[in-house]
Amino acid sequence: MTIARAPRPLRLRPTWSSVFETGLGARVYPYLMVFPAVLLVLGVVVYPVLSGISWSFYDVTLRKLNSGSFTFVGFKNFERVFADPVFVRASINTLVWVILNVVAQLGLGLALALLLHRPVRGIGFFRSGILVPWVVPSVVAVLTWRWMYDPSVGIVNEMLVRLGIIDSYRPWLGDTATSLYAVTVESIWKGTPFVMLLLLAALQLVPRSILEAASMDGASGWRKLWYVILPQIRVSFAIAAVLTFILTVNNFNAIWLMTEGGPLNSSEILFTLAYKYGFQRFDLGLASAVATMLFVGLVIATTLYLKLMQAREAD
Amino acid sequence: MSLSVASSTTAAATKVSAQRKVRPKLALKRVLLYVSLWVAFVWSVFPFYWMIATSLRAKADIFRRPPSIVPQGITLQNYVDLLVSAHFWRFAMNSLILTLSVTLISVFISVTAGYAMARHRFKGSVMLPLFMLYGQMFPPVLLLIPFYVQLRYLGWLDSLYGLIPVYLSYMLPLCVWLMRGFFSQVPHSLEDAARMDGCTRWQAFWKVILPMAQPGIVAVATWVMIHSWNEFLYASTFILSEKNRTLPLGLSKLIGQYTTDWGVLMAGGVVTAAPIVLVFFFLQKHLVAGVGGGAVKG
Amino acid sequence: MKMRRMRGLIAATLLAGLSAPALADNIVMWVNGPLASSPDAPIYAELKAFEAATGHTVEVQAVPHMEMERNLFVALSSGAGPDVMALDIAWVAGLADAGLLADITAQTAPIAAEYQPGPLASGRYDQKQYALPLYTNNVALFVNDRMLAEAGIKKAPSNWAEFRDAAVAMTNKDKQTYGVSFGGNRMGAFQLYSFIWQNGGEIVDEAGKVRVGEPAAEEAVDFLAKLYTQSRAMPDSVLTAGNWDEVHAPFIQERAGMVVTGDWALAAFTKGNPNLKFSVHPLPAGVKSATVIGGYDLAIKAGSKVEKPAFELLRWLTGSRSIALMQKYERLSATAAATSPEAIAALPKQLQPFMAQASSGRARPVVAQWTQIHSDVFANVWDAVIRGKPAKDAMAEANTAITGLLEKK
């Protein structure tokens, strides 16, 4: 608001930043702005990632690391990974895990954002409360959930029994049929607030006039959501989707600290499998092969999704 | 809180005329709204409550069956044990320094880079953001060894400043990406108007665009803050000495080889989470204030 | 007085023998978190004494048990890492196999008799000594005295049949009480090993042959699993319990009458339920008695610049002083002297049964692939069998899997 009334420098008054208005300065300006980011990313992202990928083609085990000489083995690590039946199981689990998490987090996040966007009394209280899961250190959060799921003193069991949903305590994390879903619930709990925050921030940017105009036209709630609100926050929604996707695939703490991928690999995802290969078997070649496949999968999925979004934007 | 209430009253005022006709339906809607808000609230807060409740229980109460939702007796013994046994203040200071540095650096870098990517066409302006994002997709655990080698080469192992670039690698790509998204949602017209009025590009960015993107900046800053505050894997691998430990490392020390004192661990969790929850309550108001004024209205 | 003089003597001989000109070296040591949990932990005083006696300095870095193996791996494989490290005995083989630990066979040969044979063996890989035992532990049978009496049983079970009968007798569906609390996955696997050995079974024998497919091993697994699958004498926590707290919980709550665990449970039980009346007994014997050894070893990094002082430190911490030092932690020294009747009598009462059965303690196979055998193969065997897979099939598969792992090298 204040911006509109603030006195502005006159058109021709030169300041130090005038350098960027014309000529070389203008051309350099954007590069200058991205330069620090690019520099950092080159140093701390590109190199480690490339070395991680390259390991998947070498025989990198504890012994080899110590002697410092790796042998190139081509696709042998990948063959070994494919030969492991656990890999198939972990791939399927990863798919289930990602779909459940992304759909639920985006859906709930959007619902919460719409709910919390309303300027009603005490909304700050609710906003703060609902963001709590995101703020709690993930290690502690996971251990707390584990404790809550406990088959003998877990409050989850106690509450479900009292509500009459189950009649006796169950080992949620110990049953091969429920372990993955039990962890998913924790992960949704932890991840949704951030999606909500992103979408809420985007909703705040939607000009109120647009919403009011839609209300005037007598658009129903759902129509307004679909035709007015969603297109306005489309970019943020896409960002939230991509981020949730990446963070879910790479969510290690939740599964590792609750089930370690068990029982009987029923909650194994590719990430935990890679960790087991790397830091329990100390076979980094094998671990990197899994990680590389995961990486390629993520890159393809994200690129496709973003291209789709762009195509729709172009329409 | 006051700001959100203020904005709620103005908003309510604008709606009043339209709402008059549909009062009964509206009352029902209001009830529904509050019911769903409470459900969401309880669902979100309950595990945190459980943490606090466990931290306040006497040791013998923790294993009681059936579990009681409210502790049967409240004791601060766990907190006393926690604060006596470890250098929690030291850990908190380390976490604070680390978090602030990482947050400042990444907000600064991601704001400039995000803006340039959203507003300017230059070589690589399309591919660069995507490329950055890709960097985020490699499972972080497998980057431990390359990072270790790098840090060792630089002599930055076991130091807080050594963790800064590592954390940046883990935060920055997403931050840049997020900021780019926020900037692209700020209407072009505002910047154009400012430029018409004689602002240089930099001034338009600094005085017009940046305040507009405030919710985005706050979101990014909170994201970085929370993740650096809670980061565990890298810190636990690269930090060795007691004096450089961060809070999550202090926490993991409480998980024993054989048995864990759950009461103390949960107390540690509460102590670790408390500062960030408080900071967040403060920022949350700003998140509302940044837009509550309706700067975007035009 | 006498003790002190003796210690001084040992230090003096060490000094004279190992580093004639006492150069002041700085030794970096990683210890497992619990030993250095606070600034006044006994280990610091002990190291002060070492520094005073030798002139070296020791830089201690406490690493939580959970992260120790990974951190050692990352650090050592990048050519860094501590000069002296505390290792869970199960990790020695893997690191030794990779050539990351210094061979101390020559220095330890003359003093081998000073250590208990089981723990000492845990530091030996491929006929070479790589580590000395810092402390040892083993598992015993904990019995809830009240529940046992109420089930009408006079004395704690001392063999398998009595063990099963007691477990069944204490199981009561209406009161939701169970006979014995047991762990799932790796916890359960760890508890299993003692029973396999008791039954005369082997996991990997001296000659390196895998023998888990043999009837003796298979019967042991079957025996324990049936306590859950048939007699329902174990609580459901056996399906999930992935840490000792979850194994202990039913026992603390007096819902399970027995539990197989180690000395680390003593403090947890007293804290968790001060009114719990329990007693500690040797594990019920099968064909013979056996218990699995755990604990930590100390080893030196291969190529450490301060190898000699590092060995002095190893000797200092694992030698005769360790009896007093470990008693401060309520843990068991692994020296042979600690098993003498007088030394046992000097221990806190509840620790005595553990030391008394130390002679039947056995180290897990010291093979490089042990971590993987334990957490990939055995953990899954146990998980599968308690979920209804016949023990015979599971163990036959495990036999093939372990053989495959050992051959791969």
Automatic annotation (TrEMBL), chain A:
<dbReference type="InterPro" id="IPR000515">
    <property type="entry name" value="MetI-like"/>
</dbReference>
<protein>
    <submittedName>
        <fullName>Sugar ABC transporter permease</fullName>
    </submittedName>
</protein>
<dbReference type="InterPro" id="IPR035906">
    <property type="entry name" value="MetI-like_sf"/>
</dbReference>
<feature type="transmembrane region" description="Helical">
    <location>
        <begin position="226"/>
        <end position="249"/>
    </location>
</feature>
<feature type="transmembrane region" description="Helical">
    <location>
        <begin position="95"/>
        <end position="116"/>
    </location>
</feature>
<keyword id="KW-0813">Transport</keyword>
<dbReference type="Pfam" id="PF00528">
    <property type="entry name" value="BPD_transp_1"/>
</dbReference>
<feature type="transmembrane region" description="Helical">
    <location>
        <begin position="188"/>
        <end position="206"/>
    </location>
</feature>
<feature type="transmembrane region" description="Helical">
    <location>
        <begin position="284"/>
        <end position="306"/>
    </location>
</feature>
<keyword id="KW-1133">Transmembrane helix</keyword>
<feature type="transmembrane region" description="Helical">
    <location>
        <begin position="28"/>
        <end position="50"/>
    </location>
</feature>
<keyword id="KW-0812">Transmembrane</keyword>
<keyword id="KW-1003">Cell membrane</keyword>
<comment type="similarity">
    <text>Belongs to the binding-protein-dependent transport system permease family.</text>
</comment>
<feature type="domain" description="ABC transmembrane type-1">
    <location>
        <begin position="91"/>
        <end position="305"/>
    </location>
</feature>
Automatic annotation (TrEMBL), chain B:
<feature type="transmembrane region" description="Helical">
    <location>
        <begin position="161"/>
        <end position="183"/>
    </location>
</feature>
<keyword id="KW-1003">Cell membrane</keyword>
<keyword id="KW-0813">Transport</keyword>
<feature type="transmembrane region" description="Helical">
    <location>
        <begin position="130"/>
        <end position="149"/>
    </location>
</feature>
<keyword id="KW-0812">Transmembrane</keyword>
<dbReference type="InterPro" id="IPR035906">
    <property type="entry name" value="MetI-like_sf"/>
</dbReference>
<feature type="transmembrane region" description="Helical">
    <location>
        <begin position="204"/>
        <end position="226"/>
    </location>
</feature>
<feature type="transmembrane region" description="Helical">
    <location>
        <begin position="262"/>
        <end position="283"/>
    </location>
</feature>
<feature type="transmembrane region" description="Helical">
    <location>
        <begin position="95"/>
        <end position="118"/>
    </location>
</feature>
<dbReference type="InterPro" id="IPR050901">
    <property type="entry name" value="BP-dep_ABC_trans_perm"/>
</dbReference>
<dbReference type="InterPro" id="IPR000515">
    <property type="entry name" value="MetI-like"/>
</dbReference>
<keyword id="KW-0472">Membrane</keyword>
<feature type="domain" description="ABC transmembrane type-1">
    <location>
        <begin position="92"/>
        <end position="283"/>
    </location>
</feature>
<comment type="similarity">
    <text>Belongs to the binding-protein-dependent transport system permease family.</text>
</comment>
<dbReference type="Pfam" id="PF00528">
    <property type="entry name" value="BPD_transp_1"/>
</dbReference>
UniProtKB/TrEMBL annotation, chain C:
<dbReference type="Pfam" id="PF01547">
    <property type="entry name" value="SBP_bac_1"/>
</dbReference>
<keyword id="KW-0813">Transport</keyword>
<protein>
    <submittedName>
        <fullName>Sugar ABC transporter substrate-binding protein</fullName>
    </submittedName>
</protein>
<comment type="similarity">
    <text>Belongs to the bacterial solute-binding protein 1 family.</text>
</comment>
<dbReference type="InterPro" id="IPR006059">
    <property type="entry name" value="SBP"/>
</dbReference>
<feature type="signal peptide">
    <location>
        <begin position="1"/>
        <end position="24"/>
    </location>
</feature>
<keyword id="KW-0732">Signal</keyword>
<keyword id="KW-0574">Periplasm</keyword>
